[in-house]
Design a protein that fits this description.
Length: about 325
């Protein structure tokens, strides 16, 4: 792994020398813009629109636009001096419970390993945090950007996750078109909760794959091999009008997913017995009802766990001639 940062964790008067390594990697497939005429990649040029000349890095400084077209300039040394101390220390301010932090705050995860002779202090901090069940909230700067961070234990390693400052989180009140005062249909809610229950499963990250990336890699291999590529047209999406029908169809498509084999096996048997009992009770009463009404219409019932198709309309039995 490539070292992206080097410094020390500080909590109280204790300093733990550490190195930082990125815990994640970007798997996106990188593509370049190509000139169709000659097949050459397009280059990006740093060019001054006023002087109409290309500019080297040595002639570039950084500036902040405080008014339209007006900038205050900063030299590289000024910015480095501003964050000189912060770039070398991860200062733990507080210890909190992980559950208190909403996931919206998290940015990027890094691994921390002990540096130089910091093994003992590193293991001490790791074990103390593991037994207390707490995580550390710290401040640090990476590449001149100041960040809050959460330090936590991951197996036998300390991990640090940069998190946003509170004023960097946009308020929900800015989100347009959020529904207000809409009453949820009880039957639809029951079906939706049933669908959630059937789709509930333990989190297994290895089963999730990037379908787009895999498809793109396959296309790249085909093009490199000189194969002709034909893509089937995507099916047009249709707006769902009947929410209840969509929920019922979804539940039927998923099928019952049981987490407890005993309860899952007992539920269908119980439903079968109930259905048989209802059918047996209804059949003796069908003939008298048919004699007076002429026809009988079966009324579908709302299922409790598994959704079954509605029973077909059937004609009542005619009375036998004496």
């Amino acid at each position: 792994m490539h070292t992206v940062w080097k410094g020390a964790i500080s909590f109280g008067l204790v300093h733990v020398p550490v190195k930082m390594f990125s815990a994640t990697e970007d798997k996106d497939i990188s593509m370049k813009y190509i000139h169709k005429v000659c097949g050459s990649p397009i280059s990006y040029v740093r060019r001054c629109p006023s002087c109409e000349v290309d500019v080297n890095w040595e002639e570039i400084s950084r500036g902040y636009e405080y008014e339209k077209g007006k900038y205050v300039l900063f030299e590289k040394e000024e910015l480095e001096q501003l964050s000189a101390h912060a770039e070398r220390t991860i200062n733990i301010i507080d210890f909190v419970d992980l559950e208190e932090i909403d996931p919206i705050y998290f940015q990027k995860t890094y691994y921390l390993s002990p540096d130089q002779a910091g093994g003992n202090a590193y293991q001490l901090l790791l074990e103390a945090m593991r037994q207390s069940g707490k995580i550390g909230i710290a401040k640090l700067a990476i590449r001149s950007k100041s960040s809050l961070a959460a330090i936590r234990v991951m197996e036998g390693c300390l991990a640090i996750e940069t998190i946003f400052y509170p004023d960097e989180i946009r308020p929900i009140s800015q989100v347009p078109n959020l529904p207000e005062n809409i009453q949820v249909n009880d039957k639809e809610l029951t079906m939706a909760k049933m669908l959630i229950e059937q789709l509930s499963t333990p989190f297994e990250p290895e089963k999730y794959t990037d379908d787009y990336r895999e498809g793109l890699l396959h296309l790249i291999e085909q093009k490199v091999a000189g194969e002709e590529i034909s893509l089937a047209p995507a099916k047009p999406e249709t707006n769902v009008i009947d929410l209840m029908a969509a929920l019922q169809a979804s539940i039927e498509a998923v099928g019952p997913v049981a987490t407890d084999p005993g309860s899952a096996a007992a539920a269908p048997a119980k439903r079968t017995r109930k259905s048989a009992a209802k059918k047996a009770k209804a059949e003796p009463a069908a003939a008298p009802a048919a004699a007076s009404a002429g026809t009988e219409t079966a009324t579908p019932t709302t299922p409790s766990v598994a959704v079954k198709p509605k029973p077909k309309r059937r004609s009542a039995a005619k009375p036998k001639a004496k």
